[in-house]
């Protein structure tokens, strides 16, 4: 038979484990929500946030430095995004820093990336509004890829038709490429050119020798006249 003391010990262990898990959960959630860090607040205005959500990470130089804590639609074409940033990173962020929406990997969650800005500028202050960069839409990329694919397909089909016509001897190029007599005429022409070049060289050599011979005879005649 179980004693009340044994039951109390088991109950105490269960309660302690539950409290420990609860505290761990609060700690991890608090870390993600920047509840235990000293933070400052900035914002940026976007025309399209591309699926960005509250709680998404904010990165600076590849490091997670904050989270998106607020998204507010200002008008039909602008959305303000509030950002909660670790205060320890503020000294590296300049007034001319920019925020751009990206993805954590090719198909990962959306996130914000903040560029450092140019050196020599003052640091960001609490509640500053920073410039933003229009994100590249994945839909636009897919549309451009489809257009490129369609153009490549059309070019391939046109080339296939042209090559088929050439093989069948159609058109000027087809007749030129597929006519055996034309190929023979080209061979004969090349042979004639070679022969003509050879004859031209022989004539030039002969003319050169004749010129040298005349020069030699003139020198010899002048010498005889002096004698």
What does this structure look like?
The chain is an alpha/beta fold and 227 residues long. It is 50% helix and 21% strand. The chain has four helices and seven strands; from the N terminus they run αβββββββααα. A seven-stranded mixed barrel has the order 1-4-3-2-6-5-7. A hairpin with a 2-residue loop joins β2 (57-60) and β3. It is elongated. It starts with a helix and ends with a helix.
Describe, in short, the structure shown.
This protein is an alpha/beta fold.
What percent of the residues sit in helical stretches (DSSP H or I)?
40-55%
What would you report as the Rg, rounded to the nearest angstrom? 43 Å
User: What is the general shape?
Assistant: elongated
Number of helical stretches of at least 4 residues = 4
Along the chain, the helix and strand elements come as HEEEEEEEHHH
Largest sheet: 7 strands, mixed, barrel
Beta-strand share of residues: 15-25%
DSSP summary, beta strand count? 7
